[in-house]
C-alpha cells in the first residue's frame, strides 16, 4: 500500500481516462494511464462495467492507497455520489442512482474511498497543486474547447466558477470562447468550411482568415479578463483545453492587450495538459 498514490479518473461525455497519480509530486505513474471510449447512451450496467474495467486496469498497475478521485460532470451530488444528469445527451441511465455504490460493487481490490469532484475545478486544481500557478494566492483558469470551462482557486483550492454563462458582449462567454465560435467565425471569414477546431488548427493554411480569427479571439479574451480583473483581482491566469495548444497564435496578442490595460497578472498555458484533471482530482482527496 502506498498512501501517496491515488487513482485519478476523468469522465467525459464520450470517454474515460484513469491513471495512478503520485500526489506528492503531481506525476502520473508511467504506464498506468488507461483511456477508453464510452457509449454514454448505454444502460446503467454497461456504463458502470465500462468505467470499472478501465479503473481496474490502472489500479492493478502498482501498489496504491485504494483511494479513487473522479472528475465528474454535473449536475451531480458530489458528496453522496448520486447522478442527476438527465436530457444532456449523456448518462441518462444513471439518473438518481448511487454511482459510488455501483462502482464499489464492480471494482477489484481494497477500495477505501471514492471521491467525486466537479470536473471544471479539477483542471485548475492540478495546475495550482503542481504547476507554475502553485505560487499564487488567487488564480483563474479556463479550458478552451467544446465548451468554456472555468474555475477559480484561492489559497491552493480550486472550485468551479461557471463563467460560461457570464454576460459578455450581448451574449454569454460560451458564445465567444468555445470551439463553436472558432469554427463559425473562420467559416464566415474564409468562405470555406471546417468542421471542428482540430481541423482548423492543424489542416488550415496559416493565412489571413485564420490569423484574423485568433486576433479577434485575443481581443475578446483580453476584454473579458480585464472586466474580470476589475471585480476579482486575480494573481494569474491558466489556460487549458485543446484550443490552448494553438497558443502561439493568440498568447502574444493577449499578453500585449493585458499589458496595455495595466494588468500585470501572468498568463500561463497549462503545464499538465490532458493530465491536469487527473492530477487535480487525485490531489483533492486530501483536501476533505
TrEMBL record:
Top-level taxonomic group: Bacteria
Q: Which family does it belong to?
A: Belongs to the ROK (NagC/XylR) family.
Q: What is this protein called?
A: ROK family protein
Name the species this protein comes from. Answer: Pedobacter agri
